[in-house]
Amino acid sequence: MSERQRILTGDTPTGNLHIGHWVGSVKRRVQLQEKHECYFLIANLHAYTTRADSPMDVHRDCIEVARDALAMGVDPEKAAIFLQSEVPALSELTYLFAMLLPFNRVMRNPTLKDELKIKGLADNYSFGFPLYTVGQTADILAFRAHSVPVGEDQVPHLELTREVARRFNKMYCGVPDKAPDEEHESLGGVFPIPVADVGKVGRLVGTDGQNKMSKSLGNTIHVIDTAKKVKKKIGKIYTGQDSRQPNDPGIVDPEKNPLFQYLDVFVEDEATKVDIRDRYERGDNIGDGEVKMLVADAINELLEPMRERRLQYEDDAVVLEVLRSGTARAIASTEETMQMVKDVAGTGFFKRTLTLA
To answer: Least packed by Cβ within 10 Å: which of 134, 154, 176, 299?
Structure first.
């Protein structure tokens, strides 16, 4: 086992990655891969919770998500990008962990409730929809991950994972009931108790100016968007201030204008940000149009090297080889965990070796 801490995070393949993914998680992945043992999951089984009737679309999106991650700077020599459906331990642990969680506890997950509401599922959802939250705990714990880069909306999922890890370690490994989280491994627990690594921007507002940036809401700026398209999307952001003329008197609060989150996140020069805020608050010959131009230029400056890097992975065969290599590494890591789990949980009878053909 590597002496470096393990990191696990990932994405459900529902389309191309966008700048919300970058600021919420992927930027942190690129940083972490330099010093940690990183595994980045493409959760294609989780995609079936709402897209079971579109298997080929999910298949295609797996390749696109991997391509975008590579474009954003994930290095396949430093981190393993892998496919959830090709790693048997993840499904096996999901089944076992489902026995350790009361159904009511799973359904109290606020992120799950929000997703049911946003997706308009009400009571019309499959049994697999709440089960995927248990699957997320398996995704993380199968790698005995110490840290998980997530957006703030995913923190409740991680808390569920922490509960499962504690319960398993106490039930099957004899870890004392009141043992501190950081001592579980040293006391014989199979699983470390992972912590959330929330990005600097936990929730990036979308181009609708109201909701979190989300593919399902169509309010995104994607890695694959051209410079022209980025400017067009930024230009359409509803700010609530569009009717204000540049020289309107009175103080205006930039915190109520979603453009200023984009300004803070994507414009690097601090002096420029301070000057724009000051002028905007005083109504000093500045309007939303000027801020939008500045933001669009900054986003395009960020995306340009990603667009260029993406050209290296235009061939699906190249992307699939990256996924194959990463999946083989993921299988090796999770099989080690499964053997530990089976030894203490009493489910192990025979040794097995899994390889990709």
So the answer is: 176
